[in-house]
Design a protein that fits this description.
This protein folds into two domains: 61 residues; 194 residues, Rossmann fold (3-Layer(aba) Sandwich), CATH 3.40.50. It has nine helices and seven strands, in the order ααβαβααβααβαβββα. The strands form two sheets. Strands 2-1-3-4-5 form a five-stranded parallel β-sheet, with helices on one face. A hairpin with a 2-residue loop joins strand 6 and strand 7. Helix 3 packs across helix 9 and helix 5 packs parallel to helix 7. The chain is globular and about 45 Å long.
């Protein structure tokens, strides 16, 4: 009987040892699994922190949500970007003070970017043709404004019927050479004067201006495509006399905003 009791105790002891070993084994497995999970999560968390830091750094370098030429130029300068608008009464008239297209454009831009990032100068030659402009100090005014970006309407409407197209383009070359010699880093965008109804000779002048821009690799803002058709009488609602009215200035401004920022 004593022998049976000892045997029973031995069996119970073995079972207890096996149970403890089993529990110890599972505890080790759980510990290993927990450590493995922590090792996987930690690098992921570090990556997310690095990505967030990178995104924050990138956002800090962007001053606005503008794209296109103007967006790039603002990002590339630490100082305010100087924009100079240069042209005839086609781009600016005191009659439409506050509603000329350069003024409308600047107002639209400062809705998208802090105004401290942009300085603007408008230089208008009025109704003068190149024969008069060449004897004035307008080029000095342009250079003194120190533009990073020059938006230039080269007086084709003012020259119409007064100056031959080849002479107009020769004057344009002289102006650009003078400006670029003083401001070698300048970006120039050429553009036509306002369109009119059934332009005939004037259309030839504008076609030659576009060809000049293409040949000499200047940016060309062909805003005529945004106006009513030049053979439609409706276009007469967009200019007064020779030059742009409020309707035309709005169309021109909208086109230029898209041209510069997309």
């Amino acid at each position: 009987m004593l022998k049976n009791l000892l045997y029973a105790l031995l069996v119970i002891g073995c079972l207890a040892i096996l149970t403890l070993s089993h529990l110890s084994y599972h505890a080790k497995l759980e510990k290993i699994a927990t450590q493995s999970q922590n090792e996987v999560i930690k690098p992921s968390s570090d990556y997310e922190r690095e990505q967030n830091a990178s995104t924050t750094e990138k956002n800090d370098t962007n001053k606005h949500d503008l794209g296109g030429l103007l967006g790039d130029m603002i990002n590339d300068t630490n100082a305010p970007l100087q924009i100079t608008f240069f042209g005839s009464e086609s781009i600016y008239s005191p009659e439409y003070e506050g509603n000329n297209w350069p003024e409308i454009l600047i107002a639209k831009l400062v809705e998208e970017v802090d105004e401290s990032y942009i300085d603007a100068t408008i230089i208008s030659t009025g109704d003068r043709s190149n024969l008069e402009i060449t004897n004035e100090n307008y080029m000095t005014e342009v250079i003194d404004s120190k533009p990073d970006l020059l938006l230039f309407e080269p007086f084709m409407r003012s020259d119409n019927g007064i100056v031959a197209i080849e002479d107009s383009l020769e004057y344009l070359t002289l102006y650009l050479e003078q400006i670029e010699s003083e401001l070698p880093e300048i970006t120039v965008v050429l553009m036509p004067s306002n369109p009119i109804y059934n332009p005939q000779l004037y259309l030839t002048q504008i076609t030659e201006l576009k060809s000049y821009a293409d040949t000499n690799r200047y940016l060309y803002a062909d805003h005529w495509q945004a106006w009513p058709d030049i053979l439609s009488e409706d276009i007469q609602n967009y200019y007064e006399g020779k030059y742009t009215n409020e309707n035309g200035h709005q169309v021109w401004a909208d086109y230029m905003f898209t041209f510069l920022t997309e």
